[in-house]
Amino acid sequence: MKARCALIVVSFFTVAPAFADSGRQVDIDWLQTIAFATHRTDYSGTFVYQHNGNMETARITHISDQNGEHEKLESLEGPRREFIRNNKEILWYLGDHKTVQVERQYSGKSFPALLPEQLSALNENYLIHTAEQARIAGFDTQAIVFQPKDTLRYAHKMWAHKDSGLLLKAVVLDERRQMVEQYTFIQLKIGGDIERMQEITGQPTTTLQQQSHFTTPSETITQTATNDWKIVAIPSGFKKIMEVRRPLPGKKTDAIHFVFSDGLAGISVFIETLGNHFNRKLGLSNRGAIHVYSREKGDYLVTVVGEVPPRTVMQVADSVRYRGQ
Predict the structure, then answer these.
(1) Domain co-membership, 238 together with 180
(2) Strands annotated E in the chain
C-alpha cells in the first residue's frame, strides 16, 4: 500500500502532458494570435527575470479597453522603479522622489510583448517549430522554438497560453543552448475582474507633467538623410526600419540613429561626435541578451546596441563607414 501511494506521488510530479504535435511547423495565424494577445488581453501577474546570474522580480498589470492599452510595471526589489503606459505615452517613476519622465513613443518590445505584429520576416530568418506542452503559473502552454538560420543571432523559446496566446515564459539561448536570459510568470490572472488602478487608466496630471524635464521623441526626432554614413556588415535578414537624427539628453550635438530588425531581434547604431563624451566607456558590456559595444571612429563615437550575440554588435560597429572610406 505504501509503495502504491509513493508511486502515485511520484507520478503526480513527473507525468507531463502528451504532445503529439511537437516538432511541427508553426502556423502563421497562431503566431499572429500570440503577437496580438499581449495587447488585447487583460492580465495581472508577477514574473521573474533571470540574467547574468541575477534574478529580478516584477509585477505587471495590463488592461485593454475602449480607450486603448494601459499598463503598469513595477519592480519588487531595490529602489522604486515603475513604468506606466497609456497607449504610446509612458511615465517612468524612478526612486522614492517620484522623478518622472514623459515619452510619447513606445516600441512595445518587452515581456510578454516579444513578438511583433508584422511577422513576415520571421520565417526568412528563423526555423519555427513547436516543442513540448507545459503548465506554467497554473496555465496550459505550448512551447515554440525560433531557431536562427545563422550564428549571428540568438535562439528563442517561448511558451504561449493555449487559450489566449499570451506569452507566459520566454528564454533566449546561445549557440551552445545555454540560457542567456529568461522571463517566467510565477503568478498570473488572465481576464476577469482585473483591478483598474487610477495610475494606469487615468490621464497623467498637470503636476506630473510639469515635473518632467524629458524631451519627448515625437517632438524632436526628425527623419534625415544620413547618406554620409553606411553600415556594410549588417547580418543577412536585418532590414533598416528607421534612420533619424535625434538629440540626446545632456549632449551638445545630435546623434545619428539607425535601427535594424530581423522580425524578432533589433540592432541600433548610434553615431555621435566625441565631444559628447569626455569620460567615454569603450568596449563591450551586456545585460542579459542585450549587448552594447562602443568604439571610436575618427572624431566620432560609434555605439551598437542589440539583442544579439557579442560578436554581432562588434561586427556591425567595425563595419560603420564614412563616405569615401
Answers:
(1) no
(2) 43-51, 54-65, 68-75, 81-86, 89-94, 99-103, 126-136, 139-148, 155-161, 167-173, 179-190, 222-223, 229-231, 239-246, 255-261, 266-273, 283-287, 290-297, 300-306, 320-322
